[in-house]
Amino acid sequence: MTVTNNVSVTGSNEDGAFRMSYTNHDQTGVYENSSLDRNTLSFSGSQQISEDLKASAAVNYVQSKGANRPMTGYGSSVMS
User: Which of 22, 26, 21, 20 is nearest to 4 (CA)?
Assistant: First the structure.
């Protein structure tokens, strides 16, 4: 089962714009007691500084926590 929630806020005027969003992703794995929880925070903005100069920036922060996720590849992996 996978549940994803998102909320975002945007704003703008004639000189600039911004967007901020938060996403929560909660996934229960196929294997017993496995899960993935991910939180994402994003911000982007731009500002017209002068007629010939515009500044823009974007930042993303992601935090992931997994439990009992199977390995992939060779070795003691369940997948191989």
Answer: 26
Contact 31, 16 (CB under 8 A): no
What is the CA 17 to chain-centroid distance, rounded?
20
List, for residues 35-55, the tens digit of each pLDDT value.
Answer: 889 999 999 999 999 999 999
If we measure between CA atoms, which residue out of 32, 31, 22 comes closest to residue 63? 22
Retrieve residue 72's tokens.
């992939």
Torsion sign (Cα): 48, 50, 52, 58: negative
User: What strand order describes the sheet that includes 2-12?
Assistant: 2-12, 16-28, 35-50, 53-67
Q: What is the pTM of this model?
A: 0.75
